[in-house]
User: Which sequence fits this backbone?
Protein backbone atom coordinates (compact mmCIF):
# COMPACT_ATOMS: atom_id res chain seq x y z
CA UNK A 1 0.00 0.00 0.00
CA UNK A 2 1.55 3.24 -1.14
CA UNK A 3 0.87 6.41 0.84
CA UNK A 4 2.14 9.15 -1.50
CA UNK A 5 2.50 12.15 0.81
CA UNK A 6 5.43 13.61 2.75
CA UNK A 7 5.85 16.63 5.03
CA UNK A 8 8.62 17.87 2.73
CA UNK A 9 10.46 16.52 -0.28
CA UNK A 10 14.02 15.32 0.34
CA UNK A 11 16.40 16.53 -2.39
CA UNK A 12 17.76 13.05 -3.22
CA UNK A 13 14.44 11.20 -3.40
CA UNK A 14 12.52 10.23 -6.54
CA UNK A 15 9.89 8.07 -4.88
CA UNK A 16 6.28 8.91 -5.74
CA UNK A 17 5.89 11.37 -2.88
CA UNK A 18 4.11 14.71 -2.83
CA UNK A 19 3.80 17.60 -0.42
CA UNK A 20 0.35 19.15 0.07
CA UNK A 21 0.62 22.38 2.04
CA UNK A 22 -3.16 22.78 2.09
CA UNK A 23 -3.57 19.40 3.85
CA UNK A 24 -4.80 16.03 2.66
CA UNK A 25 -8.36 14.79 2.43
CA UNK A 26 -7.53 11.58 4.27
CA UNK A 27 -11.12 10.30 4.31
CA UNK A 28 -11.23 10.53 0.51
CA UNK A 29 -7.97 8.60 0.18
CA UNK A 30 -9.09 5.96 2.68
CA UNK A 31 -12.31 5.43 0.71
CA UNK A 32 -10.27 5.12 -2.49
CA UNK A 33 -7.85 2.63 -0.90
CA UNK A 34 -10.76 0.48 0.25
CA UNK A 35 -12.33 0.58 -3.20
CA UNK A 36 -9.12 -0.33 -5.02
CA UNK A 37 -8.53 -3.11 -2.49
CA UNK A 38 -11.90 -4.60 -3.44
CA UNK A 39 -10.85 -4.50 -7.08
CA UNK A 40 -7.74 -6.48 -6.17
CA UNK A 41 -9.83 -9.08 -4.41
CA UNK A 42 -11.53 -9.77 -7.75
CA UNK A 43 -8.12 -9.98 -9.48
CA UNK A 44 -6.62 -12.32 -6.88
CA UNK A 45 -9.45 -14.15 -5.11
CA UNK A 46 -8.79 -16.87 -2.56
CA UNK A 47 -5.19 -15.89 -1.79
CA UNK A 48 -3.69 -15.98 1.69
CA UNK A 49 -1.99 -12.74 2.69
CA UNK A 50 1.49 -13.42 4.08
CA UNK A 51 2.59 -9.82 4.61
CA UNK A 52 1.35 -6.23 4.32
CA UNK A 53 3.57 -3.21 3.78
CA UNK A 54 2.56 0.45 4.14
CA UNK A 55 5.23 2.22 2.10
CA UNK A 56 5.63 5.69 0.74
CA UNK A 57 5.97 8.54 0.81
CA UNK A 58 5.51 8.76 4.53
CA UNK A 59 2.87 6.32 5.82
CA UNK A 60 3.50 7.53 9.39
CA UNK A 61 1.54 10.65 8.40
CA UNK A 62 -1.58 8.45 8.16
CA UNK A 63 -3.94 8.43 11.10
CA UNK A 64 -4.12 5.20 13.07
CA UNK A 65 -7.79 5.04 12.05
CA UNK A 66 -6.87 4.95 8.35
CA UNK A 67 -4.26 2.22 8.91
CA UNK A 68 -6.69 0.18 11.04
CA UNK A 69 -9.50 0.51 8.49
CA UNK A 70 -7.28 -0.77 5.68
CA UNK A 71 -6.10 -3.72 7.78
CA UNK A 72 -9.67 -4.57 8.81
CA UNK A 73 -10.74 -4.54 5.16
CA UNK A 74 -7.86 -6.82 4.13
CA UNK A 75 -8.89 -9.23 6.88
CA UNK A 76 -12.50 -9.22 5.66
CA UNK A 77 -11.59 -9.92 2.03
CA UNK A 78 -8.70 -12.36 2.24
CA UNK A 79 -7.38 -14.97 4.64
CA UNK A 80 -4.44 -13.48 6.53
CA UNK A 81 -1.75 -15.90 7.67
CA UNK A 82 -1.47 -16.03 11.48
CA UNK A 83 1.49 -13.85 12.50
CA UNK A 84 1.63 -12.17 9.07
CA UNK A 85 4.30 -9.46 8.93
CA UNK A 86 2.61 -6.04 8.86
CA UNK A 87 5.14 -3.24 8.35
CA UNK A 88 4.68 0.52 8.29
CA UNK A 89 7.40 2.89 7.06
CA UNK A 90 7.85 5.79 9.42
CA UNK A 91 9.84 9.00 9.52
CA UNK A 92 11.52 9.34 12.91
CA UNK A 93 10.00 12.60 14.15
CA UNK A 94 8.59 12.83 17.64
CA UNK A 95 5.07 13.44 16.33
CA UNK A 96 5.17 10.25 14.33
CA UNK A 97 6.71 8.18 17.12
CA UNK A 98 3.74 9.35 19.20
CA UNK A 99 1.45 7.37 16.89
CA UNK A 100 3.35 4.06 17.18
CA UNK A 101 1.15 2.64 19.96
CA UNK A 102 -1.94 3.39 17.91
CA UNK A 103 -0.47 1.64 14.87
CA UNK A 104 0.32 -1.36 17.01
CA UNK A 105 -3.23 -1.45 18.34
CA UNK A 106 -4.43 -1.29 14.72
CA UNK A 107 -2.42 -4.44 13.87
CA UNK A 108 0.97 -3.20 12.67
CA UNK A 109 3.74 -5.43 14.09
CA UNK A 110 6.87 -3.99 12.47
CA UNK A 111 8.13 -0.49 11.65
CA UNK A 112 10.86 0.58 9.30
CA UNK A 113 12.29 3.98 10.24
CA UNK A 114 13.95 6.33 7.75
CA UNK A 115 16.83 7.47 9.95
CA UNK A 116 19.25 8.12 7.02
CA UNK A 117 22.08 9.45 9.21
CA UNK A 118 22.99 9.80 12.87
CA UNK A 119 24.77 13.11 12.31
CA UNK A 120 22.85 16.39 12.50
CA UNK A 121 24.91 18.24 9.88
CA UNK A 122 24.44 15.30 7.50
CA UNK A 123 20.71 15.18 8.18
CA UNK A 124 20.46 18.87 7.27
CA UNK A 125 22.49 18.27 4.10
CA UNK A 126 20.02 15.48 3.20
CA UNK A 127 17.13 17.91 3.74
CA UNK A 128 15.68 15.87 6.60
CA UNK A 129 13.25 17.42 9.04
CA UNK A 130 14.35 15.38 12.08
CA UNK A 131 17.45 15.50 14.27
CA UNK A 132 19.67 12.56 15.24
CA UNK A 133 18.32 12.87 18.79
CA UNK A 134 14.76 12.47 17.51
CA UNK A 135 15.85 9.48 15.45
CA UNK A 136 17.40 7.80 18.50
CA UNK A 137 14.26 8.51 20.50
CA UNK A 138 12.04 7.08 17.74
CA UNK A 139 14.20 3.93 17.60
CA UNK A 140 13.69 3.51 21.34
CA UNK A 141 9.94 3.93 21.04
CA UNK A 142 9.91 1.41 18.14
CA UNK A 143 11.93 -1.06 20.21
CA UNK A 144 9.50 -0.75 23.11
CA UNK A 145 6.36 -0.95 20.97
CA UNK A 146 6.85 -3.52 18.21
CA UNK A 147 8.17 -7.07 18.17
CA UNK A 148 10.28 -6.17 15.15
CA UNK A 149 11.76 -2.96 13.81
CA UNK A 150 14.31 -1.84 11.29
CA UNK A 151 15.85 1.43 10.22
CA UNK A 152 17.39 2.81 7.04
CA UNK A 153 20.66 4.67 6.64
CA UNK A 154 22.04 6.25 3.49
CA UNK A 155 25.82 6.04 3.07
CA UNK A 156 28.38 6.94 0.38
CA UNK A 157 27.19 10.50 0.92
CA UNK A 158 29.12 13.50 -0.48
CA UNK A 159 32.58 13.64 1.08
CA UNK A 160 31.97 10.67 3.42
CA UNK A 161 35.24 9.02 4.45
CA UNK A 162 35.66 5.37 5.40
CA UNK A 163 36.51 6.43 8.96
CA UNK A 164 33.41 8.60 9.29
CA UNK A 165 31.21 5.74 8.03
CA UNK A 166 32.92 3.27 10.36
CA UNK A 167 32.04 5.49 13.34
CA UNK A 168 28.46 6.10 12.20
CA UNK A 169 27.74 2.48 11.31
CA UNK A 170 29.20 1.43 14.67
CA UNK A 171 26.69 3.66 16.43
CA UNK A 172 23.90 2.34 14.22
CA UNK A 173 24.76 -1.27 15.04
CA UNK A 174 24.58 -0.41 18.75
CA UNK A 175 21.06 0.96 18.22
CA UNK A 176 19.87 -1.72 15.77
CA UNK A 177 17.44 -4.53 16.42
CA UNK A 178 17.55 -7.52 14.12
CA UNK A 179 17.20 -5.78 10.76
CA UNK A 180 18.95 -2.85 9.09
CA UNK A 181 18.73 -1.37 5.56
CA UNK A 182 21.90 0.36 4.37
CA UNK A 183 21.56 2.12 1.01
CA UNK A 184 24.34 3.72 -0.99
CA UNK A 185 23.23 7.19 -2.07
CA UNK A 186 22.12 7.08 -5.69
CA UNK A 187 21.74 10.23 -7.77
CA UNK A 188 18.23 10.06 -9.20
CA UNK A 189 17.33 11.94 -12.36
CA UNK A 190 15.16 15.00 -11.92
CA UNK A 191 16.01 15.53 -8.23
CA UNK A 192 17.78 18.64 -6.83
CA UNK A 193 20.77 16.38 -6.02
CA UNK A 194 21.00 15.40 -9.70
CA UNK A 195 21.10 19.08 -10.73
CA UNK A 196 23.88 19.81 -8.22
CA UNK A 197 25.73 16.67 -9.29
CA UNK A 198 25.56 17.68 -12.96
CA UNK A 199 27.12 21.07 -12.10
CA UNK A 200 29.94 19.43 -10.13
CA UNK A 201 28.60 20.88 -6.86
CA UNK A 202 27.84 17.52 -5.30
CA UNK A 203 30.44 14.78 -5.55
CA UNK A 204 29.67 11.29 -4.29
CA UNK A 205 32.21 8.55 -3.59
CA UNK A 206 32.44 6.25 -6.60
CA UNK A 207 34.66 3.45 -7.90
CA UNK A 208 37.26 2.42 -5.32
CA UNK A 209 35.93 4.78 -2.65
CA UNK A 210 32.39 3.35 -2.94
CA UNK A 211 33.77 -0.22 -2.95
CA UNK A 212 35.73 0.47 0.24
CA UNK A 213 32.58 1.77 1.95
CA UNK A 214 30.59 -1.24 0.74
CA UNK A 215 33.21 -3.72 1.93
CA UNK A 216 33.42 -2.07 5.33
CA UNK A 217 29.62 -2.30 5.55
CA UNK A 218 29.69 -6.04 4.86
CA UNK A 219 32.49 -6.67 7.38
CA UNK A 220 30.95 -4.69 10.22
CA UNK A 221 27.40 -6.00 9.78
CA UNK A 222 28.62 -9.60 9.59
CA UNK A 223 30.65 -9.17 12.74
CA UNK A 224 27.59 -7.72 14.47
CA UNK A 225 25.44 -10.72 13.47
CA UNK A 226 23.46 -8.83 10.82
CA UNK A 227 24.84 -10.16 7.53
CA UNK A 228 23.45 -9.01 4.18
CA UNK A 229 20.62 -11.15 2.85
CA UNK A 230 20.16 -8.75 -0.07
CA UNK A 231 22.41 -6.06 -1.55
CA UNK A 232 21.28 -3.37 0.91
CA UNK A 233 19.42 -5.35 3.56
CA UNK A 234 20.85 -6.98 6.65
CA UNK A 235 19.25 -9.21 9.25
CA UNK A 236 19.99 -11.84 11.81
CA UNK A 237 18.92 -15.25 10.45
CA UNK A 238 15.14 -15.58 10.36
CA UNK A 239 14.59 -11.83 10.81
CA UNK A 240 14.61 -10.91 7.10
CA UNK A 241 11.71 -8.79 5.85
CA UNK A 242 9.26 -11.40 4.60
CA UNK A 243 7.52 -8.80 2.50
CA UNK A 244 10.65 -7.82 0.62
CA UNK A 245 11.61 -11.48 0.22
CA UNK A 246 8.32 -11.96 -1.64
CA UNK A 247 9.44 -9.33 -4.18
CA UNK A 248 12.91 -10.77 -4.55
CA UNK A 249 11.69 -14.36 -4.74
CA UNK A 250 9.29 -13.13 -7.39
CA UNK A 251 6.06 -13.98 -5.64
CA UNK A 252 2.68 -12.34 -6.15
CA UNK A 253 1.79 -8.98 -4.64
CA UNK A 254 -1.06 -6.51 -4.90
CA UNK A 255 0.03 -2.88 -5.41
CA UNK A 256 -2.58 -0.50 -4.04
CA UNK A 257 -2.48 3.31 -4.00
CA UNK A 258 -0.96 5.97 -6.29
CA UNK A 259 2.06 4.77 -8.28
CA UNK A 260 1.95 1.23 -6.83
CA UNK A 261 3.16 -1.80 -8.78
CA UNK A 262 1.67 -5.28 -8.57
CA UNK A 263 2.38 -8.75 -9.93
CA UNK A 264 -0.44 -11.26 -10.05
CA UNK A 265 -0.93 -14.57 -11.83
CA UNK A 266 -4.33 -14.74 -13.56
CA UNK A 267 -5.21 -17.88 -15.56
CA UNK A 268 -1.56 -18.95 -15.46
CA UNK A 269 -0.25 -15.65 -16.88
CA UNK A 270 1.72 -13.20 -14.74
CA UNK A 271 0.45 -9.67 -15.05
CA UNK A 272 2.38 -6.49 -14.22
CA UNK A 273 0.15 -3.68 -12.99
CA UNK A 274 0.87 -0.09 -12.13
CA UNK A 275 -1.42 2.67 -10.99
CA UNK A 276 -1.68 6.38 -11.78
CA UNK A 277 1.06 8.28 -9.92
CA UNK A 278 -0.66 11.60 -9.22
CA UNK A 279 -2.56 11.14 -5.94
CA UNK A 280 -5.63 13.20 -6.80
CA UNK A 281 -5.89 11.82 -10.35
CA UNK A 282 -5.57 8.31 -8.91
CA UNK A 283 -8.34 8.98 -6.38
CA UNK A 284 -10.62 10.37 -9.13
CA UNK A 285 -9.91 7.29 -11.28
CA UNK A 286 -10.75 4.94 -8.43
CA UNK A 287 -13.95 6.87 -7.73
CA UNK A 288 -14.97 6.56 -11.40
CA UNK A 289 -13.73 3.07 -12.26
CA UNK A 290 -13.12 1.21 -8.96
CA UNK A 291 -9.35 1.12 -9.50
CA UNK A 292 -6.47 3.38 -10.53
CA UNK A 293 -4.59 0.83 -12.64
CA UNK A 294 -3.35 2.48 -15.83
CA UNK A 295 -1.00 -0.27 -16.97
CA UNK A 296 -1.80 -3.97 -16.96
CA UNK A 297 0.60 -6.00 -19.06
CA UNK A 298 0.61 -9.77 -19.56
CA UNK A 299 4.27 -10.75 -19.26
CA UNK A 300 5.79 -13.22 -21.71
CA UNK A 301 7.76 -16.13 -20.27
CA UNK A 302 10.99 -14.40 -21.32
CA UNK A 303 9.98 -11.17 -19.55
CA UNK A 304 9.11 -13.15 -16.45
CA UNK A 305 12.49 -14.86 -16.54
CA UNK A 306 14.26 -11.48 -16.86
CA UNK A 307 12.39 -10.06 -13.89
CA UNK A 308 12.88 -13.14 -11.73
CA UNK A 309 16.60 -13.04 -12.48
CA UNK A 310 16.90 -9.33 -11.75
CA UNK A 311 15.27 -9.84 -8.37
CA UNK A 312 16.77 -13.22 -7.43
CA UNK A 313 20.47 -12.51 -7.92
CA UNK A 314 20.21 -9.69 -5.38
CA UNK A 315 19.68 -12.26 -2.65
CA UNK A 316 22.40 -13.97 -0.63
CA UNK A 317 20.35 -17.19 -0.96
CA UNK A 318 20.53 -16.70 -4.74
CA UNK A 319 17.98 -17.61 -7.37
CA UNK A 320 16.43 -21.06 -7.66
CA UNK A 321 17.06 -22.03 -11.28
CA UNK A 322 14.85 -25.11 -11.23
CA UNK A 323 11.92 -22.99 -10.02
CA UNK A 324 12.67 -20.43 -12.72
CA UNK A 325 12.78 -23.19 -15.33
CA UNK A 326 9.52 -24.73 -14.12
CA UNK A 327 7.78 -21.36 -14.38
CA UNK A 328 9.30 -19.96 -17.58
CA UNK A 329 10.88 -22.86 -19.46
CA UNK A 330 14.16 -20.92 -19.54
CA UNK A 331 17.55 -21.05 -17.86
CA UNK A 332 20.76 -19.05 -18.31
CA UNK A 333 23.24 -20.66 -20.74
CA UNK A 334 25.76 -22.95 -19.11
CA UNK A 335 28.68 -21.35 -20.96
CA UNK A 336 27.76 -17.89 -19.62
CA UNK A 337 27.37 -19.26 -16.09
CA UNK A 338 30.83 -20.88 -16.39
CA UNK A 339 32.41 -17.68 -17.71
CA UNK A 340 30.91 -15.48 -15.00
CA UNK A 341 31.85 -18.06 -12.35
CA UNK A 342 35.41 -18.11 -13.72
CA UNK A 343 35.51 -14.33 -13.31
CA UNK A 344 34.25 -14.86 -9.74
CA UNK A 345 31.21 -12.67 -10.38
CA UNK A 346 28.67 -15.41 -9.66
CA UNK A 347 28.77 -18.72 -7.84
CA UNK A 348 26.71 -21.90 -7.84
CA UNK A 349 25.10 -22.89 -4.56
CA UNK A 350 24.30 -26.59 -4.65
CA UNK A 351 22.83 -28.05 -7.81
CA UNK A 352 20.13 -25.51 -8.62
CA UNK A 353 21.04 -22.13 -7.16
CA UNK A 354 23.03 -19.21 -8.44
CA UNK A 355 24.05 -16.01 -6.73
CA UNK A 356 26.22 -12.96 -7.31
CA UNK A 357 29.51 -12.95 -5.39
CA UNK A 358 30.65 -9.87 -3.44
CA UNK A 359 32.50 -8.59 -6.53
CA UNK A 360 29.54 -9.53 -8.76
CA UNK A 361 27.23 -7.43 -6.60
CA UNK A 362 29.34 -4.37 -7.40
CA UNK A 363 28.67 -4.81 -11.13
CA UNK A 364 25.27 -6.41 -10.77
CA UNK A 365 23.65 -4.73 -13.76
CA UNK A 366 26.24 -6.17 -16.13
CA UNK A 367 26.01 -9.61 -14.52
CA UNK A 368 22.21 -9.65 -14.87
CA UNK A 369 22.44 -8.47 -18.49
CA UNK A 370 24.91 -11.22 -19.44
CA UNK A 371 22.78 -13.90 -17.79
CA UNK A 372 19.55 -12.59 -19.33
CA UNK A 373 21.11 -12.50 -22.80
CA UNK A 374 22.09 -16.14 -22.41
CA UNK A 375 18.60 -17.51 -21.63
CA UNK A 376 17.86 -20.74 -23.52
CA UNK A 377 15.32 -23.59 -23.20
CA UNK A 378 15.62 -25.01 -19.70
CA UNK A 379 17.74 -28.02 -18.83
CA UNK A 380 16.73 -30.74 -16.39
CA UNK A 381 16.98 -29.88 -12.69
CA UNK A 382 20.49 -30.18 -11.27
CA UNK A 383 22.10 -29.50 -14.64
CA UNK A 384 23.06 -25.87 -14.28
C1 LIG B 1 10.22 5.56 0.70
S1 LIG B 1 11.66 5.96 1.53
C2 LIG B 1 11.34 5.87 3.26
C3 LIG B 1 10.37 6.21 4.08
C4 LIG B 1 10.30 7.55 4.72
N1 LIG B 1 9.61 8.45 3.86
C5 LIG B 1 11.61 8.19 5.08
O1 LIG B 1 12.16 8.91 4.25
O2 LIG B 1 12.03 8.04 6.22
C6 LIG B 1 12.60 4.48 1.54
C7 LIG B 1 14.09 4.63 1.77
O3 LIG B 1 14.74 4.78 0.53
C8 LIG B 1 16.00 5.34 0.76
N2 LIG B 1 16.29 6.27 -0.33
C9 LIG B 1 15.45 7.14 -0.93
N3 LIG B 1 16.09 7.80 -1.92
C10 LIG B 1 17.37 7.34 -1.96
C11 LIG B 1 18.52 7.62 -2.74
N4 LIG B 1 18.50 8.53 -3.72
N5 LIG B 1 19.66 6.93 -2.50
C12 LIG B 1 19.70 6.00 -1.52
N6 LIG B 1 18.65 5.70 -0.74
C13 LIG B 1 17.50 6.36 -0.94
C14 LIG B 1 15.98 6.02 2.12
O4 LIG B 1 16.85 5.37 3.00
C15 LIG B 1 14.56 5.84 2.55
O5 LIG B 1 14.44 5.62 3.92
S1 LIG C 1 12.99 10.07 1.49
FE1 LIG C 1 11.06 9.64 2.49
S2 LIG C 1 10.45 11.62 3.45
FE2 LIG C 1 11.99 12.08 1.95
S3 LIG C 1 10.79 12.60 0.11
FE3 LIG C 1 11.40 10.43 -0.06
S4 LIG C 1 9.68 9.33 0.75
FE4 LIG C 1 9.46 11.48 1.45
Assistant:
Amino acid sequence: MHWPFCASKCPYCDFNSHVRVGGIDEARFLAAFLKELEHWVTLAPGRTVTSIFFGGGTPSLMSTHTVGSVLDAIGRHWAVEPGAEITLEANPSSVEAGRFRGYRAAGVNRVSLGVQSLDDAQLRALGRLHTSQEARAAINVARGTFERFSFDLIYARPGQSVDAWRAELGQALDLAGKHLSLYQLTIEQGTPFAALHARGKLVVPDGDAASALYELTQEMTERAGLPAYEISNHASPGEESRHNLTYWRYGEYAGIGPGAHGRVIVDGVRRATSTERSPETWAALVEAEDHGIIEDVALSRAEEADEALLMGVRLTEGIDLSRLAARTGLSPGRRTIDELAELQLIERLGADRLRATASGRMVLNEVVLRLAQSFEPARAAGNY
Q: What stands out?
A: The longest strand covers residues 79-90. The first helix runs from residue 26 to 43.
